[in-house]
Amino acid sequence: MNPLPKPPFNDVWDRLDENHLCAYCACELAENTLHCPQCHRRLTSKVLDHQKPSGSFYIFLIFIVGLVQLSLIQIILEVLSLTSPVTLVWQGIWFPIFLILAYLVYRRRFSGYVGAMVAAAIGMTQLGLTTFQPELFQTWSDVQGTPLEGLISGSAQTVSGIIFALQFASYGGILLLGFFYVPPDFATKKIWHRVNVPADLYRMNGAAAHLTADRLAQEGQWAMAVMYWRRALADDPSRVLYALSLADAYRRLGFEGRAIDILKYLQKNTSTMQARHKIAALKAQTVGQWRQKQGTLDTVKEK
C-alpha cells in the first residue's frame, strides 16, 4: 500500500509550533491554561521523578510495617495483662497511624513520607521519656497482682526489652533513611497534558509507536495518541490497523473530514474482505456522526 496522500488542508497537529493543544480533545489552548475549556480536564499533573523505587525505599517501608506489627503485639499483650492503660492507649493510637502511613508510603505519597518522619520523631521522644521517666509510660511488664502474673512475669522484662530495641531501631532507621536516602523516591515533577512532539518519536518503529498510542488512548489522551499513530503509519504505510486506529482517533476528536479521507483511501487500497468490512463500518459511523453534527449546527443556525 502506498503512503497516505497529504491532506488538502493543514490540521491542528501541523501547527504545534504556533498552538497548544489539549492532549485529550485537541482543543486549541492559550499559553498557561490549566483546565481545558472543551473537555474540562486538568492539564497538569504530578508524576514521580523515578518510576522504579530504590532499595532504600523498601527498607524504609519495612521499618514502618515492622512498627505496625510491634504496635499490634503490644496491644495484644496489654489486653491480656490489663495492667497499663496508658501504654494500651498509646499503642492503640500508633497502630492505625502506622498502618495508614505504611499504605501511603507504599503508594509513594509525599504525605506518607512526611508523616512517617514526624511519627518517627515523636516515637523516639516517647521512647526516651519511657527510659528516663518510666512513671510516665507504665509498661505491660508490670503484671503483679494479675491472674497472668505467674505466666508472664518471668519473660516480661525480656520481651519488653526486645520490643523496645526493635522500636528504637525502626525509628532510627526511618529517620536516617528519610533524611539521607529516600527523598528522591518521593520527588515529583509537574507535567503538562498537551500535545507535543516527543524527542524519541521519530526514532520509534511502527509497532512501538502503535503500542504507545494505544496506551495513551486508553488513558483518554486521544489527541496525543494521534501523533504516535501518524508516526506508526509513516513507518509502515501497509498496516491497515494503524490507519484504522488513526481514523478512529480523528473521529472521536471530532475531525470527521480527516477520518473520512483516510477511510476512503483505505477502501481504494485494501483488498481483504475482513479489513474492508471494518473500514466500511467505521466510515458509516463517522459519516453518521458528521451528519448528526451538521444537523445540530443547522438547528442552531435556524434558532
The Cα radius of gyration reads 31 Å
Give the name of the CATH architecture of the largest domain.
Alpha Horseshoe
N-to-C order of helices and strands: EEEHHHHHEHHHHH
Report the CATH topology name of the largest domain: Serine Threonine Protein Phosphatase 5, Tetratricopeptide repeat
Shape: elongated
Low-confidence stretches: 136-144
CA-CA gap between termini: 47 Å
Assembly type of the shown chains? single chain
CATH domain class name of the largest domain:
Mainly Alpha
- Percent range of helical residues: 55-70%
What does this structure look like?
The protein folds into two domains: 12-43 and 193-302, Serine Threonine Protein Phosphatase 5, Tetratricopeptide repeat, CATH 1.25.40.10; 55-186. Helices cover 63% and strands 5% of the residues. The chain is built from ten helices and four strands, in the order βββαααααβααααα. It has helices at 55-81, 85-106, 110-132, 149-180, 183-186, 206-218, 222-235, 240-252, 256-269, 273-302, and strands spanning 20-21, 28-29, 44-48, 188-192. The strands form two sheets. It has a two-stranded antiparallel ribbon. Helix 1 runs antiparallel to helix 2, helix 6 packs antiparallel against helix 7 and helix 7 runs antiparallel to helix 8 (240-252).
